[in-house]
Amino acid sequence: MSPTPARPTFPALRRTLAPAAALAAAALGASLVAPLPALAAADTPVISEVYGGGGNSGAQLRHDFVELGNPTAADVDLTGWSVQYLPARPGTNTQVQVTPLSGSVAAGEHHLVRQAAGTGGTTDLPTPDDTGNTNMSATAGTVLLVEGTGAVTCRTADACAEDGSVVDLVGYGDAVIHSGTPARGAGNTASVSRDAAFTHTGDNGADFTSGDPTPTNGAGETAEGPGGGEPEEPVEPGDLRVHDVQGTTRTSPYAGRQVSGLPGVVTAVNAFGSGRGFWFQDPEGDDDPRTSEALFVFTGSTTPDVAVGDEVLAAGLVSEYRPQAGAQTITQLERARWTILSRGNDLPEAVLLDADTLPSTYAPDHGGDVTDLELRPDEYALDFWAAHEHMTVRVEDAPVIAPTDAYDALWVTTDPDANPTPNGGQHYGSYDDPNSGRVKIESLLDRNVRPFPQANVGDTLAGVTEGPVYYSRFGGYLVRATTLGEHVSGDLERRPVRPTARHEISLATYNVENLGGADDQADFDALAEGFAAYLGSPDIVGLEEIQDNSSETDDGVVAADVTLDRLVDAIAAAGGPAYEWREISPEDKKDGGVPGGNIRNAFLFNPARVQFVDVEGGDATTPVEVVDGPRGAALSASPGRIAPQDPAWNSSRKPLVGHFRALNRDVYVVTNHFNAKGGDQSLHGVIQPPNRTSETQRHQQATLVREFADELLAVDPDANLVVMGDLNDFQFSTTLDILTGDGALTNPMVDLLGEGEGYNYNFDGNSQALDHILVNGALAGRVDYEIVRINSEFHDQVSDHDPQVLRIDTRRSTSPGRN
């Protein structure tokens, strides 16, 4: 799945006045829609400042807080309103933390809501106007101002935009619920706040800037945060250099302190978006490989008045920006001032990244948080990146190993000989070797002048690509390119599978990436072309990520007949078979995925070649059982679901089981979509090695599917059993070991494909396998297997997964019912 895109804005004028506010206006003889301060767009109080670092490491203030501001011309009664908090990525069952409000906020003034205290800090907030116990994240979350005290039920930006009780909201860090773009720069020593006019454009990223926390109550009392106010413009070099500020670990020894007079040359400018600023690098350095010689100066939504080649002296508050929990931090200057000493200077030479630059060992095997460890850039790739944070690096003639994504980013490699795939990617074959030469490339160039290349795996960025090292929650360390190499195509082509012979039964599994009945027809047509032109029109298809008829609208609809009818109609129109389908609709919001999408697995089959053995009784909660039948094993329900009420499937898709008959052979198929990896710690995070917490549930799920397989084969040891789908784990994982242990099931991907060919998904430049087709021993010697490479290596993919096709050779069977 792709990262969450920007979500709708929340213009304050979209809603009518709250009844309480209207009564207050009438009592005062004033209108709450009187002229506002310049550029302000709000006709109600707004959230003016958010701080979640209270009491954390380096923080001066003891408490978190939310500050409200009133940009209107009249006092507003807040009685019956509340401030509410959601974590950055709330789930269906996430509890909202609610703080009821009281009293009123005067025109043009503030209202301070004190929240939970941390264990550190030295300074109390000014007397709060309201208090709560919410423990907010320092770096990422969503704060909502709500007319009412009932907890909001929205868990997406769209849903919150449609909730008439939500007066204002601020998403910061990597929060998925935000207005416009999220506010950036919050941390232990920094809040995000509006300007003095409470400007409200509907875009959190534009309206909020990072800086010292300045909590202000209704009486106008305030407290300054740890930065000690605005720095003076530097006029001469100070006692520190950039490498002193960067230090020899991942965080600065000067975090939370003001520094001044740092010399350097501007190497790059980010003039776009809400995370604007510039990079500057000390051309002299200290020859210590552990210390970076560059810094980023964060200016929020303001484009800095510097140019590449400017010699500067910089001053500001040293902060550590962490894009999300568990990520590395970015050492940067905030609330900065700088003096330009000269222009047009030569830039420091970029560090060349080649096959010998990045250590082959990715990270220290520390068993915990590596933040405070001294960097060892000659031993660990992750330490190399941290030791070169913000410095200019370059790659030359870089092979593309992951296609351009929807956010104009791609991956290249500095070591193309490491674990190569047939098409020029890099195969991820074990936890111990995550391909340390991978490098993510984004661009700082104006897209209107230099469009980002739309590249596929196997293409090349010829010549030089260079820019400063930065860090993103999506993919970790990356190069923000100021120079992009020339895009040279590798002529990667989609190729169809071979035709299915008359004596073969063909099966496929395909994750169609959140396909819903309200989606555009183009989505259905693109998928249909794949079925007709590349998959060879398989006889039986297991589908994953089928959503309900209203797609992601959370309206209680669970049926998916429109979704599946539109898909089979599109396939037929593209020249494929006239498929029929079977599925079982889930209970509303019980199967995970996007809230309201009601994701599920489904079957397609070609009735000209396959009969579906329908057995009534399958529903969302009834488990399927294996029973004796006239031809061997039979199912108590077909289609049916495996142990759907077992806790292993909480908020997760339940396996769908079907009994098929083709070429007078019975075939039992289980299509799966196991628990996603979303809760796992990242390869590039501060915990090394990363914890794979999501696999606990997958192990439980694999155990239940294995138990079903064992039951089926106990009744009929020679049954034709296929277990397939998006298992969300690798061929070398414990999840797959549970399914294949003792030879109960085998994996044709492992048994039949050559080295480096076992992949059907690309994540962060690693070509890996999340989707599998497993067969029991009776089939193992008479199957043929292909991965249909039509998506994961292409920038114009219609799904992020490649489908797979398995063919069963029926010529060696011995009895119609059992082989």
Briefly, what is this?
By secondary structure, this protein is mainly beta. The chain has eleven helices and 43 strands.
What is the strand and helix layout of this fold?
Elements: H1 19-28, E1 46-51, E2 63-69, E3 76-77, E4 82-87, E5 97-100, E6 104-105, E7 110-117, E8 130-131, E9 141-146, H2 157-162, E10 166-172, E11 191-193, H3 204-207, E12 209-211, H4 242-246, E13 258-270, E14 276-281, E15 294-300, E16 311-321, E17 330-342, E18 351-352, E19 368-369, H5 381-387, E20 392-402, E21 410-413, E22 438-443, E23 460-472, E24 476-481, E25 486-488, E26 504-515, H6 521-533, E27 540-546, H7 561-573, E28 580-583, E29 600-605, E30 610-612, E31 626-629, E32 632-635, E33 640-641, E34 656-662, E35 665-673, E36 687-688, H8 695-715, E37 720-726, H9 734-740, E38 745-746, H10 748-752, E39 761-763, E40 766-768, E41 771-776, H11 777-780, E42 783-787, E43 804-809
Parallel strand pairs: 7-8, 15-17, 18-20, 22-24, 26-27, 35-37
Antiparallel strand pairs: 1-2, 1-11, 2-7, 3-6, 4-5, 4-9, 9-10, 11-12, 13-14, 13-16, 14-15, 16-17, 19-36, 20-21, 20-23, 21-22, 23-24, 23-25, 26-43, 27-29, 28-29, 30-34, 31-32, 33-34, 34-35, 37-41, 38-41, 39-40, 42-43
Which regions have little confidence, pLDDT < 50, spanning 5+ residues? 1-41, 814-819
Helix content: 10-25%
Mean pLDDT: 91
- What oligomeric state do the depicted chains represent? single chain
Number of helices: 11
Beta-sheet strand percentage?
A: 25-35%
- Rg, Cα atoms, Å: 29 Å
Biggest β-sheet strands, sense, barrel: 7 strands, mixed
The end-to-end distance, rounded to whole angstroms, is 38 Å
Structural shape: globular
Which class best fits the helix and strand makeup? mainly beta
